Structures are given as structure tokens and as C-alpha cells.
Amino acid sequence: MPTPSPRRPQDLIHLLTRAERLAARRLRAVLDEDGCSLDAWRVLALLSDGQGHHMTAIAEAAFLPPATLTKLVDHLVDQNLVHRRVDPLDRRRILAHLTPRGQTYWRRLDREVRARWPVLSDGDDELLRALLGRLVDTLDGASAESTL
Length: 148
What we know:
Blueprint: H1 9-32, H2 38-47, E1 53-54, H3 55-62, H4 66-78, E2 82-86, E3 94-98, H5 100-116, H6 124-146
Antiparallel strand pairs: 1-3, 2-3
Helix pairs in contact: 2-3
């Protein structure tokens, strides 16, 4: 019986990187047809919950630096997909929301992405989501501990 190879972080990092790049490539192929970037899709996905989000939260969710996010949101505002409002609870902050046109655009994008996204079988999607969530939590916890 062969002995298992030792765990090497670079193996997992390689698999995660490859999976992310393949997923992004597949997603971009769908989004390009509608003239939507991957970054814009991430922003629209977050705003699709209808709750309105602060720019800081959007930047974190979209993995974008604040200046880049501001330019992207400006572009989405120019396209009448997003609008900004002053936060009624903290008038110093701005909340971004989808416009009605943005909601329609998002629903169409979401349908197209879902229709062309490969599905793993027998509950593997849920298993993968749970495992990746645990990995993120573990790495996030290890990151927080190292800064103490």
C-alpha cells in the first residue's frame, strides 16, 4: 500500500489557484457577451440583495481597492445600473443600490451564468462550499492570531 504524500501547502494553493482561474475564465465568457466585467458582476451580485451597501463593504466583497471601486461604481452609475444614496443612519456614508434597470440587468446575467455554470454531482457543490468556507475561516482566524 503506497504511503500518502506529505501535505504541502503549495499543492492546495496550486489547486485553488487553478480552480479560481478556470472558474473566472468560464464566468468571463458568459459576462463578456453582456459587456459586464468580473469586477462589475461581483458588485452587482452584492447589491442584488436590495439592502444597499457601503463602499467599504463593496470593496471588500469585490476584492477591489477603494479607488478602483469608485471608478467602477461611477461607470455603473453612468450606465444607470447603480445609484448612490446618503445612509439615513450615518449621513457621512454613502449606500449603493441597484436601479430598476440594474435589477433587470442582474437578473438576466444571473440566469445566464446559472444556465452555463457546471454543477458538481451528488451534493458536491454543498460539500465544496462548506470546505472552502471552513478554509477561509481557518485562514482568517490564523491571520487574526498572527497580528496579535
